Amino acid sequence: MPDTPPLTHIAFILDGNRRWAAREGLSSLEGHQAGYKNLKAIGQACFDKGIKYFSCYLFSAENWQRSQEEVGYLMNLALRVILKDARELHDKNVCLKIIGSRVGLDKKLVAAIEKAEALTANNTAGTLAACLNYGGQQEIVAATQAIVASGVAPDMITEETVKEHLFTKNIPAPDLIVRTSGEQRLSNFLLWDSAYSELSFVEKFWPEFGPDDLDGVLEDYTARVRRYGQ
């Protein structure tokens, strides 16, 4: 019987920042700030446990539909985080990858992304893959367009061909995807790569998801049997 291999890649849908803030009598922006602080804490906890890849859904392609104030805040937060945290990640030997489309992003943000990725490219302690302006369907469309443009014959297109053209081409598929806040859906997150991922849905909002909760989902994962269709 197939067993559960060691967890190499854990991915998080960071849901519930705004609802947590509303419950606590705070603004949505304060909720996102709390979510960012928790992202750093849980990401470090995962690396400390020897997990090599930590992915997170920071800003989806659909999030542009939110209020102009909130979108502006999130984009400015992303810029500050990348500028500030790239050096911290580099000092910890962690590689940073920003996954998603660069189309529509501010030029300053794109430049900061490119600089941060170049700075941390050769680090080996772990990889933080932050999905920004990302959508799983959009990713597959972009990959398909790139394959067609490259002139590959239809009968030569394989699963490996598609993977090589995804935003996540250098990142293994997640072993486990965790979503907080009680919602039970992927919301356009890593649709291709999640084909055989284990899923875990946690009732707590993201800002209150702590180390004990991380231990809980990891313990649950180790008790599962991954059959991969067998």
Describe the structure in brief.
The protein has 230 residues and is of the alpha/beta class.
Description:
The structure is a single chain. The protein is of the alpha/beta class. The protein is built from seven helices and six strands, in the order βααβαβαβααββα. It has a six-stranded parallel beta sheet, sandwiched between helices. β3 (94-99), α4 (107-120) and β4 (126-134) form a beta-alpha-beta unit. α3 runs parallel beside α4 (107-120). The longest helix has 24 residues, at 68-91. The mean pLDDT is 94.
Topology at a glance:
Blueprint: E1 9-13, H1 17-23, H2 28-48, E2 53-60, H3 68-91, E3 94-99, H4 107-120, E4 126-134, H5 136-150, H6 159-164, E5 176-179, E6 198-201, H7 211-222
Parallel strand pairs: 1-2, 1-5, 2-4, 3-4, 5-6
